[in-house]
UniProtKB/TrEMBL annotation:
<protein>
    <recommendedName>
        <fullName>Exopolyphosphatase</fullName>
        <ecNumber>3.6.1.11</ecNumber>
    </recommendedName>
</protein>
<dbReference type="InterPro" id="IPR043129">
    <property type="entry name" value="ATPase_NBD"/>
</dbReference>
<dbReference type="InterPro" id="IPR048950">
    <property type="entry name" value="Ppx_GppA_C"/>
</dbReference>
<feature type="domain" description="Ppx/GppA phosphatase C-terminal">
    <location>
        <begin position="314"/>
        <end position="486"/>
    </location>
</feature>
<keyword id="KW-0378">Hydrolase</keyword>
<feature type="domain" description="Ppx/GppA phosphatase N-terminal">
    <location>
        <begin position="25"/>
        <end position="307"/>
    </location>
</feature>
<comment type="subunit">
    <text>Homodimer.</text>
</comment>
<dbReference type="InterPro" id="IPR050273">
    <property type="entry name" value="GppA/Ppx_hydrolase"/>
</dbReference>
<keyword id="KW-0472">Membrane</keyword>
<dbReference type="Pfam" id="PF21447">
    <property type="entry name" value="Ppx-GppA_III"/>
</dbReference>
<keyword id="KW-1003">Cell membrane</keyword>
<dbReference type="InterPro" id="IPR003695">
    <property type="entry name" value="Ppx_GppA_N"/>
</dbReference>
<dbReference type="Pfam" id="PF02541">
    <property type="entry name" value="Ppx-GppA"/>
</dbReference>
<dbReference type="GO" id="GO:0004309">
    <property type="term" value="F:exopolyphosphatase activity"/>
</dbReference>
<dbReference type="InterPro" id="IPR022371">
    <property type="entry name" value="Exopolyphosphatase"/>
</dbReference>
<comment type="similarity">
    <text>Belongs to the GppA/Ppx family.</text>
</comment>
<dbReference type="InterPro" id="IPR030673">
    <property type="entry name" value="PyroPPase_GppA_Ppx"/>
</dbReference>
Length: 500
């Protein structure tokens, strides 16, 4: 089904640019459910292309780009807001990730978002939770990826604890079996290293507790399939089954020799690293059984898209929680938010901004003063740092960069270079709504000491005219002085603002 522009408007798509494999799923929303129409996956091993300086090799980039050329054929004509393309650990780590992202976006035609480890964990849990029975009881969910492993404790659809540790099947195989040779000592070293990583979360997770353990993604799927196809288990993974897998893997001299029923050829070379991590998970948490779930990051991304379209936006809760954590003056934030929205309503058509940009204005209004919890001097800079580097669930790294740029630029010097990290396609819109945020902050500088009328705002391209009731500025000389300073600041940034 297409709309007047030819866009396919009833489909949603998620693409997972993982450290080991790239995956794509295209689905259709139907009566509150998701019907999968197309699935594609390809081993890319992006993480294997990272050198000791975290530079992604051209060869690895080409493997990824070739895969995305295939995916792009299935995604043509879809609405951008109904497509989620997410990158995980390998691109989080790559210092030259922007080079790959720009090339990949040109092929796909959709923006690529790099997500933090805990956001990856949240989406994984969302995907897993929708594949399991909606029953009570906490679950421990483990997802062993190519470069990181995510651990979540949740109940029904709500995660209670989210962690992402720097260990994965590709990175561990590369680290502990660099020449491909498999030995018992090397395997035990890999298990010990994973157990050392798990010390960071062991106590907290055991205190929370869980009733069942669930695994997702390739390593755990391969382990269960190997156990079933060899007749060692009927379903799931147990300590006894892991012991048999370990014994079998140690019979192979190198990773090239691995030929284990149930483990696909494209996974055999990195299975040893993933198995070591899985062994450490069972040892650390004392697991008796783990079942496999088909849900993973891409399925979680689909449900997240559906949730956002139904106004069940985790980002709203995240912003609210951060405002509370840093003791934001909620009354002042609300005044700024309402004024910013009123200004936005007057110019968004002229600037061709849909309501999605209004949400960014809301969030920045709510968080623009979080830096005050650190120091008043330069608090806009402190706030920007907090927004940029915190784990904000629901936001991608690029999304946090957008919010940070707005918080950094809401007062004092208006520096367009603060928006340099934002993709060119959305940079202009971010600067436009930041101009509105600055005006809303200036107009509410009195912090509710007196009523502030909503001005009339006119736009002629980038030129703005702010019109206040006759005589009001004369009665409020401090606000008049602040607005005169804002005219000067925006002029220095290359923008025209006139106060009438």
């Amino acid at each position: 089904m297409t709309d007047s522009t030819g866009a396919i408007n009833d489909l949603i798509a998620a693409v997972d640019l993982g450290s080991n494999s790239f995956h794509m799923v295209i689905a259709q929303e139907f009566q509150g459910e998701i019907r999968t129409l197309e699935r594609r996956g390809q081993k890319v091993q992006l993480a294997a292309g990272l050198d000791e300086r975290s530079i992604l090799s051209e060869e690895a980039q080409q493997r990824g780009l070739e895969c995305l050329r295939e995916f792009a054929q299935f995604m043509q004509g879809m609405e951008p807001k109904r497509v989620s393309v997410l990158a995980t650990n390998a691109l989080r780590a790559a210092r030259n990730r922007q080079q790959f992202i720009e090339r990949a976006e040109e092929i796909l035609g959709y923006p690529i978002e790099v997500i933090a480890g805990r956001e990856e964990a949240r989406l994984i849990y969302l995907g897993v939770a929708h594949t399991l029975a909606d029953d009570a009881g906490r679950r421990l969910v483990v997802d062993i990826g190519g470069g990181s492993t995510e651990f979540i404790i949740g109940e029904r659809f709500e995660p209670r604890a989210l962690e992402s540790l720097h260990m994965g099947c590709v990175s561990y195989t590369k680290q502990f079996f660099p020449d491909g040779v498999i030995t018992e000592a090397r395997f035990d070293d890999a298990v010990d290293a994973a157990r050392q990583e798990l010390l960071n979360i062991e106590t907290h997770y055991k205190q929370l507790g869980w009733h069942s353990a669930v695994g997702s993604s390739g390593t755990i799927r391969a382990a269960e399939q190997a156990l079933v196809e060899n007749g060692w288990e009927a379903e799931g993974i147990t300590p006894a089954g892991l012991k048999k897998l370990r014994k079998q893997m140690l019979q192979y001299a190198t990773t090239d020799d691995v030929s284990l029923p149930g483990v696909k050829p494209e996974r055999r070379q990195v299975f040893i690293g993933g198995l070591a991590i899985l062994q450490a998970v069972f040892d650390t948490f004392g697991l008796e059984r783990m079942i496999y779930s088909d849900g993973a990051l891409r399925e979680g991304a689909l449900w997240d898209l559906v949730g956002r379209s139904a106004h069940e936006n985790v980002r709203e809760r995240t912003v609210q929680a951060m405002a509370e954590r840093f003791y934001v003056d909620t009354a002042q934030a609300q005044r700024v938010k309402e004024m910013a929205r009123a200004l936005f309503a007057q110019v968004h058509k002229e600037w061709q901004l849909d309501n999605g940009w209004g949400y960014w204005l809301d969030w920045a209004s709510q968080l623009h003063e979080i830096g005050l919890s650190i120091a008043h001097s330069g608090f806009h800079k402190h706030g920007a740092y907090l927004v940029q580097h915190a784990d904000l669930l629901g936001f991608t790294r690029q999304g946090q960069a957008k919010l940070a740029a707005m918080v950094r630029s809401h007062r004092r010097k208006f520096l367009p270079e603060c928006f340099s990290e934002i993709a060119p396609a959305s940079r202009t819109a971010m600067i436009q709504i930041t101009r509105l945020l600055r005006l809303a902050v200036v107009l509410n500088h009195s912090r509710g000491a007196h009523p502030v009328p909503c001005p009339l705002l006119r736009s002629d391209g980038e030129r703005l005219q702010l019109i206040l009731p006759e005589g009001w500025l004369a009665e409020h000389p401090l606000t008049a002085r602040d607005l005169a300073a804002e005219v000067s600041q925006q002029k220095s940034a290359g923008f025209s603002l006139e106060i009438l």
